[in-house]
Write a structure and sequence with these properties.
35% helix, globular, 8 strands, homotetramer, 10 helices, 252 residues
Chain lengths: 252, 252, 252, 252
């Protein structure tokens, strides 16, 4: 969360990588720090990224997080089996603040956090891989359901335009069956790199609600770091090209 | 949901039993219909019943419902194992409208639904017994956290004042440990008749949020019907006393 | 497994408590060591105890052991969920040798192990409480199925004749339904102190086979120690009576 | 189990396909019936197939069968969750008799069942895919442990020598880690077409014991049928070549 360290989801805020230059200047580093978000943040930030044209204002989100999200040995089987644990240390704060930073804009060499207010309740459920999230969102704009579905389905970013090796063809997969997405059935599709969105429907309190699913071990961990690395290489911030690029950048 | 059929949680709306008289008059019945709510409604309606002094205005709730709530054979094990199913047919509507009816007031021989707006996302999780619900609520009043905890902990109703056999001593058990309530650890306590509330804390979107747990097979099914029956007997609406009571009531 | 330490299941080998006297003499102790068996041994030793009149000769047993048998935190949920772990450190040896000792006879102040040969394969399965065991047994005698069922059902010992507080009325409950016993349905019955036996039928290799279930946390742990303690008190080996008894015993 | 219908595991008894000719003669069929075994039989028959040089005499086997083996909807989640169901209708008989037929020899145009005696206890456990089996086996020969391991590891058959598309390179994968194979970790390897064998060690009752795992949905179902079909094509019993082959065969 350091202001000069970019927290990047390539489809959402690739431009935050510019902070790497500021790091070099401020810290005198040759390399740089680029981070990927918490495993539960990725799905939400990607979905809200797709809704950015409609200006998300307030979000209430409840998560159903997989056991693998706790690492190994992680949760004791006696705690996890046939149970819901309604608390994950530090997770709600990360989900609320990381998402604001990722959706934020670069202003004067720093990230200005997005103004969306997020309230998270995070839980652990006996699922192996895949974080499910039930989301209600209030938007400043008033899109129709079709416009929302189209915003999710057409969402795309630099990984797609650059054709990065680990990029899913569509970052968000929209489901129309009422009982999907489900972690067991959907989480491994698209190499675990897509976010699944389903049950898009009106929310009588905040406007719209939906369910999302993302793979916490792929899109929320190793795959996120990999896609970031591929983006850094493509943008010339890592690899031989980096020397030239950074040298050039340094001149300004 | 028929306007002359009371939907009763004895601690919350025992006075709705008066509708039984209207049934007798309108339908010419000697007996009557008194119903208990959907298994996921009970916990929410009880919690909001305790918060009625602060006037709940808007609620966003996400449920984690146990397998036993689907009856037998219910959910196929291949669907349920290590999975979250983000849809239960008709459940969200019930949760939204039944709660309004239960919290409503009797006016002119009919229930006037409470004005609270509820948005529910209901899911099935691999838990045996016990529905967990993550709730965010907006209140018209501005209680402190201590006042909220006290409202939950002191909540009480006719089953308690009448000492009905199946009544829990405290209808709502407040938990202070961050990782409670949990279905596996808490659902069977108090004979399965108490609602468990924990993690009461501010919600940056709606004001307050908390987690609740109730036993879908006891408080949400057989135990609910039993407590209703005990209340009917105690009020003289069932049993020998009923004859006299109804006879007396009939005179007015 | 020390030869002067009795390993006791009160229904099977209460007489081994005599070793406590030998301990006092050999070690000069005022107290004594009495142990209860491994959680997976109890069910097998009890079932074979009931079959002792038919002289068990060889046994092949495969266990399905509950997560709680590994203590806390025990097995990681990522290992346990939807899995079978075909190995439990040291468990097979305990099952094979403890059972021989428990079924053994006191000879010359020491336990002479029973001659039954046991081959165990022990596994961990995602069950909360209750060890299931699939047993094939070769007997020296040739009882009928009815005689076997009767031997199980009528099996009884000192806890029953002395009416010890924690003793189940029947140490072995015989099930006739083909799909029983099951840990989820049967393990808590009889206060968790009975061993459940079902599917008694011919084994084309060893003669007879059956399935047993016992509660690893009650009959296989705390309840076992408690019943041993109750037996020690009843026999005057613990408590005020012990002083007199041991004093008297010392004179011989 | 009809004597003129081959029950085929291509690595074990490809030669039984000759029965297809008998079918054509006896029934006057142009096509033919070739079946693949029960999902729990495959692993055992393959492992015993590898041990055929040592002449298996008696086998005691206990199975831990996955939920997917029961089809869909199959086992109710309320039965399956955190439970062991010690009975599967008809399964033990199939395991005992199918294995004898598969290991049998063709004599005079019919299968003469192998003389091995098998005693099976079959159970359902909360695993998604993969049947685990704990096996004790008595052999007529007296191989060393190394000879057994080699027999498993070098086992190979027509699918391998013909290079059939769905054939695993090694039909049996030998594990040396004490806690393997495990369904969650191993069942999907080798495309689900290999049988995993581990924990090979002496059995004090029957001589040797081990644990095996096979994928009930792949090697035990669709993959088995596919490999049979590939073998039929390769042998010219199906496809254009069949016409010639059968025509030729008919002349003899």
């Amino acid at each position: 969360m350091n202001p000069c360290v970019p927290l990047v989801i390539p489809e959402v805020n690739a431009e935050h990588l510019e902070l790497a230059h500021r790091q070099r200047q401020e810290k005198g580093w040759r390399g740089g720090l680029v981070t990927n978000p918490n495993c539960a943040t990725v799905g939400l930030a990607m979905a809200l990224g797709a809704l950015r044209p409609f200006v998300p204002r307030r979000v209430v989100v409840t998560t159903f997080q997989a056991l693998s999200g706790a690492g190994y040995p992680g949760v004791a089987s006696l705690d996890a089996a046939a149970n819901v644990i309604p608390f994950i240390q530090g997770e709600e704060e990360k989900l609320e603040t990381e998402t604001q930073k990722i959706l934020g804009t670069l202003e004067g060499g720093a990230v200005r956090a997005h103004g969306v207010t997020i309230s998270a309740q995070t839980t652990r459920v006996p699922v192996l891989d895949g974080h499910t999230e039930a989301v209600s969102v209030e938007l400043s704009e008033t899109p129709t359901r079709e416009e929302l579905l189209e915003a999710f389905a057409r969402f795309s970013g630099e990984p797609q335009s650059l054709g990065l090796p680990s990029a899913p063809r569509r970052p968000i997969v929209v489901h129309e069956r009422a009982d999907r997405p489900q972690p067991r059935l959907d989480v491994e599709s698209h190499g675990g790199m897509a976010v699944h969105v389903g049950r898009v429907r009106p929310c009588p309190v905040l406007g719209w609600k939906f369910v999302l699913l993302s793979h916490n071990m792929v899109r929320g961990a190793a795959g996120a770091a990999l896609l970031n690395a591929e983006l850094l290489v493509a943008r010339g911030l890592v690899g031989r090209a980096r020397e030239r690029k950074f040298a050039a950048a340094g001149r300004h």
